[in-house]
Task: inverse folding
């Protein structure tokens, strides 16, 4: 808690106490009160108790240690791409993805009415989503661990030339003025969140489902081509495939993938069987209902 700016600490203390009294309803998120992750937690869990955490690791630990029932973690943004290194954090956590949530992100410039703003503090993702708006106004971006925390820091610093890029909720919580609304560079600015829990769940099949998994290819020619063949031949739609390196060998690549469908579906079972044959290992991270349709008509 001591890592938060002073204006945020009182709120963090109150919210933490509420969750400590009823951990099952707790929803851990990264950031100070008023962050976009806070908004997502409120939307997805209307009866939940949001718990601010200073880092993604802290939010995951809150669930793993039983201090919260769930965590809600951003994974990708329509403007700025990958958000959190979940392909590193999630496998080590032992948690499972049990749901997803899409949040329409609307950024505001928060500060003091009448001031000439020369700098804007915010999370690097928010800065990236507003970079053209800032450049057009000669406002220098300053990176900060989260959006709402930046708003609290602006209050703490008391310099009217420094503003924050944050949700309108942060202005309400910290007593700042909304100097500009909707400053994101594109109207479709949306962040996808994953909801994590200690135990995997079997999703209801009244809606389409997703499966998220990791795998590592063998260090041979055409390794990825062979690994993907089973999804093509069995008609399984893959909606996400990201590569990353673990360690310093650069000899083989690991992948994070989303597909439509779930183990138990004949086509998915056949595709995963072929994937296992052509890879070193496969690890299922979660099976959950789609919050937004993936198949285009």
Result:
């Amino acid at each position: 808690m001591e890592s938060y700016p002073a204006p945020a600490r009182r709120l963090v203390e109150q919210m933490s106490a509420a969750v400590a009294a009823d951990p099952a309803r707790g929803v851990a998120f990264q950031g100070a009160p008023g962050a976009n992750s806070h908004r997502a937690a409120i939307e997805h869990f209307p009866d939940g108790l949001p718990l601010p955490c200073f880092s993604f690791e802290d939010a995951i630990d809150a669930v793993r240690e039983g201090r919260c029932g769930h965590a809600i973690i951003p994974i990708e943004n329509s403007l700025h791409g990958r958000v959190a290194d979940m392909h590193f954090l999630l496998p080590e956590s032992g948690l499972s993805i049990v749901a997803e949530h899409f949040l329409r992100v609307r950024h505001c410039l928060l500060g003091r009415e009448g001031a000439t703003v020369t700098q804007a503090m915010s999370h690097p993702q928010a800065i990236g989503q507003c970079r053209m708006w800032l450049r057009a106004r000669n406002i220098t971006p300053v990176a900060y661990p989260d959006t709402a925390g930046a708003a609290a820091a602006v209050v703490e610093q008391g310099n009217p030339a420094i503003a924050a890029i944050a949700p309108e909720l942060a202005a309400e919580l910290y007593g700042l003025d909304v100097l500009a609304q909707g400053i994101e560079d594109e109207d479709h600015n949306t962040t996808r969140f994953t909801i994590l829990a200690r135990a995997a769940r079997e999703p209801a099949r009244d809606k389409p489902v997703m499966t998220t998994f990791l795998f590592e290819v063998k260090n041979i020619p055409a390794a990825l081509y062979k690994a993907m063949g089973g999804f093509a031949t069995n008609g399984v739609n893959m909606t996400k495939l990201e590569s990353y390196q673990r360690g310093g060998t650069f000899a083989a690549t690991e992948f994070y993938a989303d597909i439509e469908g779930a183990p138990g579906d004949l086509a998915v079972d056949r595709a995963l069987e072929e994937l296992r044959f052509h890879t070193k290992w496969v690890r299922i991270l979660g099976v959950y209902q789609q919050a937004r349709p993936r198949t285009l008509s």
Q: What stands out?
A: The longest strand covers residues 279-289. The chain has ten helices and 15 strands. The chain has a mean pLDDT of 93. Residues 6-21 form the longest helix (16 residues).
